[in-house]
Amino acid sequence: MMPLTARLLPLAAAAALLSPLALTSSVAAAPAHYPCGSTLPDLDPVQGTNKANGVNMRAGSSTSCASRGLAHLSHTINYHCWTLGQDGATWTYARNLSTGYADWMRDDLLRDNGSSIHCPL
To answer: 41: exposed, middle or buried (C-beta count within 10 Å: 0-12, 13-18, 19+)?
Structure first.
């Protein structure tokens, strides 16, 4: 009878060959967090509104980034693209057409959950 280690060796070799490929494809497909100060082009023609008054527009896709403006219920928001933030939530980079500010907003604070276009990696 073949020892257990000899029987498992081909499986371990196959797993070692396949795991870098799987890791590469999943990392490339996932949207990335954008650090504080990131700006992006307008890739999405959609406009929307937020769910509450005084929604923070942040310098990056994280609550640790400074708030550089507020969006109110009466404001129109022009979506640019979305990404996954450090907090695991999705964020949209957008321009507030009422104030002119362009920054990041959490999608759960936008009435229609923000942009449907991924930001470039």
So the answer is: exposed
* pLDDT above 60: residue 67: yes
pTM over 0.85: no
Domain assignments of the chain as residue spans, ordered by start? 1-30, 47-109
What class is the 47-109 domain? mainly beta
Does the pLDDT of residue 11 top 90, yes or no? no
Residue 118 near residue 81, CB atoms below 8 Å: yes
CA distances from 6 to 15, 78, 80, 113 (A): 15, 60, 55, 53
Residue 108 — φ and ψ, nearest 5°? -70, -5
Q: What is the DSSP letter of 39?
A: -
